[in-house]
Fold each of these.
Amino acid sequence: MSSGVKRLGVLTGGGDCPGLNPVIRAVTRRAMMAGITVVGIKDGWKGLVNGITVPLDQESVSGILNRGGTILGSSRTNPYKKPEDAVKVKENIAKLQLDALVPIGGEDTLGVATKLSKEGVNLVGVPKTIDNDLSATDFTFGFDTAVNVAMEAIDRLHTTAESHHRILVCEVMGRHAGWIATYAGIAGGADVILVPEVPIDVNQVIDVVKKRKARGRDFSIIVVAEGAQFKQGADSTITKELDAFGHARLGGIGEQLAKLVEEKTGHETRTTVLGHIQRGGSPTAFDRVLGTRFGVKAAELVIEGKFGQMVSLQGNKIAGVPIEQGTGKLKTVDLDLYQLSKVFSG
Ligand code: F6P
């Protein structure tokens, strides 16, 4: 059954990640096959507050599959922060004659989408984030690229750590979930992996370093997630300022940990913060394929009129799930997988 959608708006919100352009391309190509006109909304929800759009057609999405970032731009705009902005969003949807939306985003962008959907806006969400912390999908695109970037960094840290007999701490992103740290740490053969889900026990970290030293390995690699905390600790943050969704800018745990480890072991310890490098650049093949499959499925759900859904990866199948399932609860790291990394500690 066809939904009768004639004009479809697409937007990308929140932190960018590799794979957004493949989704934009796939939604556009599949919707155009069904005779739908596709409109790109600039800079996430901000573009709908201000009514700023660009046309999306075969020409404009050509050659973007391998490009990182998003051709539509992004922002962390929360239209529900000011009631008049949420009204403007709905007015602009009507003014722009958009019959449906495909918002591509993480918990914040899709959280806004969930509210709009409950208020009667026709939409299908696409989950994205390097953090991989959205529920109801096995993976989000962007994660695989970020893990590969972090893994390569850990490989590089290994050679210099070994040459200089140092302990190197590598701080990775992931917000309050330890997915990037766990995957990159396992893939890169880190000696210690620290995640937000398990409080940091400094004595255990030091034990690992000492055990390695005792067997002649006088260097160690520690991967720490930006959201990891010491026992009885709090988030390490860069500023006290919060973004429009109430999130603090995480960062600094790597340096704090390095100081403690150096103090307690007398072993020279340095920190590398990978930061936005994990979010930039060309998507991996996995993220290009996942983004493409998500985009095609989102367009098909729009064509079928199955709104209020989010596309998701389940095993190796792409399916639609109610959008609130994706954003309702943070998907924290699989602790069995995390425990597996302990086999290689020490
Ligand atoms: O959610 C993705 C993410 O990259 C997090 O891992 C990180 O904490 C945050 O965004 C950084 O956001 P910003 O773009 O505000 O620096």
Amino acid sequence: MEKTFYITTPIYYVNDVPHIGHAYTTLACDALARFKRLDGFNVHFLTGTDEHGQKVEKAAADAGISAQDFTDKVSQNFRDLAVAMNFSNDDFIRTTEPRHIVAAQEIWRRLLASGHIYLDKYAGWYSVRDEGFFTESELVDGKAPSGAPVEWVEEASYFFDLSKWQQPLLDFYAAHPDFILPETRRNEVISFVSGGLRDLSVSRTSFNWGIDVPDDADHIMYVWLDALTNYITAAGFPDITSDTYQTRWPADLHMVGKDILRFHAVYWPAFLMAADLPLPKRVFAHGWWTNEGEKISKSLGNVIDPYVLIETYGLDATRYFLLREVPFGNDGDFSSQAMINRINADLANDLGNLAQRVLSFVGKHCGAAVPTPGTLNATDHALLARAESLITRLRYHYDAQAFHRALEETWEVVGAANRYVDEQAPWSLRKTDPERMATVLYTLMEVLRHLALVTQPVMPQAMASLLDQLAVPASARAFTDIGAAGALAAGAALPQPVGIFPRYVAA
Ligand code: MSP
């Protein structure tokens, strides 16, 4: 049977310019999507924009244009970011698209028909920034727990009977211990749900920018019910008998930031159970970045612009840093010093230098062709075996979204290869034992090939360049090429080597 993998990012609010937080969530998904493709999965990687709601309506009004024109314009910023970051998403969904409006209205009909939605009146606090409802007791100093201002709202509203889903949700979490990760976040969700759930207001009447509630023109759908449904829209819902839906849904992974976990791990599964649809397999909540120790905010003016990072440090170095520096799931601090340290130590020094030394020596002294190895000794075999077996460990780490661990283990092999070069000193074998020299260099090139193959998901361009320099054909760069299957052919001509990771020198 074909192996499939459906992975989603949150859909981004279009009122913001894309910043590091948006780039980070999608980057993690991109690395995982690329890993799975190289590992033979049929991957569907979805991202997009969340375009309805009061927040976007206000932003459009402030810009003096219609909400539709506004979203058309700013949604493009997120597509542009995807290109700039080299994201490999297969689809980009906008909640203003007809396919999504059809799906959102259909899930509404299902919830209504099954008796889980009823008409009443809402009176309470609302935070436009979070697009969330709060009770008096949830407020902190008169604000939402996120610090966002709240306003009093009183209006006719449809409600979803969330309170009835407490036990089914707790049962589901218990039966699926990996549904919410990391574990600390899972515990937070369980304790929140254990504390009891209130029915949720799922329609609004006081503004217009949203999807119409079917058969009641006075109401629009609550933006989170609308937005969460994007994940099934892109899987082909409501056509649930289609091949597309059958192969994609349920999703393998919803990647989200910790701030929006509750919507994904409580509301969304409850909506799906009530609509009699299967639940996604996992929701992973990652942490938040601060900037040089400070919370990132527009008002502090310290928002990190991904374009500036790419321009300053290079795309792949930025991708590497974001996934290597912080244990995935934890909060992390961005500092330019930490970035520079990673670039100069891990990339320029450890991997870059290794590749450069080996390739330029082979270029000069082995006729710019893959050397013909003699018999490999135990040391050569041991190093090669480490490089070849990395994939088993990496599968495990990628499946746990532990990107930092995957890179850490990969760099342990980089370290072992550097020690091997020092010990074997191929440069001094040139005159004394050329056959042994060829064997050592061949072993090193094979190790480099494996390092490049498994690091492609994080640094696709740099690793493509390294594989080009090793004369690995484009058709031999999947994980099935690990080991003897894709071994470098002795005698194959090599191109002129070029550095892959320049040292960062402050301007
Ligand atoms: N529109 C909703 C999601 C709907 S999904 C059905 C939304 N959008 S958002 O644009 O505000 O945020 C999107 C993502 O960016 C979230 O996963 C959030 O955690 C992430 N980040 C925003 N700032 C961040 C940091 N400073 N650090 C890391 N990620 C952060 O929420």
